[in-house]
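Let's practice the habit of predicting before peeking. Look at the sequence and jot down your guess about where helices and strands might fall. Then scroll down.
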Amino acid sequence: MTNLFLVLIAVVILASIWLNNISSRVGIPALLVFILLGMLFANTGLWPVVFENYDMAKETCTVALIFIMFYGGFGTRWEAVKPVVLEAGLLATAGVVATAGLIGVFCHFALHWGWLQSFLFGSVVSSTDAASVFSILRGKRLGLKNNTAPMLEVESGSNDPAAYMLTAIILSIMNGTATGGAIAWNIFAQLAFGAGFGILIAKLASLVFKHMEFPTDGFDSLFILAVAMASYALPTLVGGNGYLSAYLVGIILGNEDFRSKKNLVNFFDGMTGLMQMLIFFMLGLLARPAMLGKSVLPALCIFVFMLLVARPVAVFGILTPFRKYSVKQQALISFVGLRGAASIVFAIMAMVQTGTLEYDIFNIVFCLVLISIALQGSLIPFAAKKLDMIDPTADVMKTFNDYTEMAEMNFGRVAITPDSSWANIALCDLNLPRNVLVAMILRDGKRIQPTGSFVLEPGDEVITLTHGYKDTAATLYEKTVKVGSRRVGKPISENPGKGLVVLVRRGEENIIPSGDTILQAGDRLVILYIR
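Done guessing? Here is the structure:
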């Protein structure tokens, strides 16, 4: 049974990767594919057991959401989002409350649900989905005018804690465990302990990164994985908001300077994608087509009201007083209100912690998320273009922490020998190509930023800067020169072989070869091969 389960997991992951590539080509949101894949396994006999364990789903999705929240902060570049952090923070707090309240009123009067159950649904779907917004902005390289992309990033990354707090308060009232004092303490504890633990954990983790050398590559990823889990679990033990803590730890650590940070951003980018896949696949497993028919109509009604009324009222009500956001910009921000993973987790939480509801909250949220991802997610680039909000000169990647101004530039090093053609020559006389810059000179252990009149001397090392280049058709592989090989004792030019030798590793020495470089037994040749 274990082997069958492992094979099944491998098939699901491989199918998800394949379908993700297909979805990007045909323009279908990838998360929609994961939902459909889960439904396929659960409802066509491919899944060996009917999965209806909502308690297990709640715990699994909670863990997955921790990493999504952490990455929402860790991938955010503070320098880029600082100009709009006030407005984005208001959207993530007051905007969530306004959206939840408006949806609750609509559900009560239009769908005739009870007040508490109406506000419960409004709270569950009141936050926007960070991972979906990030995916669209990055995937489409959607540069937007007037700091719109940073605002969307901060809002979607930070509004889940407010939605969670609202959901928890409504659930406590419905379960009869809430009093005025208990609600006040709940709000205080979630905010104070969530923020306090988040800042403390982030500062301690930052000290570790700055003063500790990890013995093996990859241990830094394991360490930050543990930090992300602790950032949620520790404040939760004392009633704090774990999601708020995870987001704060992420954004503080993500904007500290330490080695391998860019690699960690890429690691969590992949981790978040896996967690999203897990949540949406599990959502598909729980869904039953027979139940969806009854949920489509109320979900569609709520979606239309949310898209045309609740979300715009919240956005325009918060941003209009600032008087620096155009109607078109506010309209686009209103439109980019995707619902996703957090709404699913909170809906499952509501099912586990409440008794009988007047409505099927899980399947209605399922339909709502499905419509939001399929419709809004696909139309965001179109809406941005129609509202004239696309800025072709803006680089949306600057709002993420794996962006660097050096992303498309590479350093090179040239050693000046006595017989070098550059020896005793001024930089201005080198006649370098326009896209090659001498950035620095290393001389006697000192770093020098030279001017054009600087004269190179034997023993100098010239650090050049030029455009980087990537090509999937060009690959590097390593080959060792064996004892008795016909290459031993001969220059590379006499037996070049297939591909270009770009590096010779000889013991601890790395040699940039020329045609007359004599090869020795044991040399490891790094060869560039073009397919």
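How did you do? The first strand starts at residue 409 and ends at 415.
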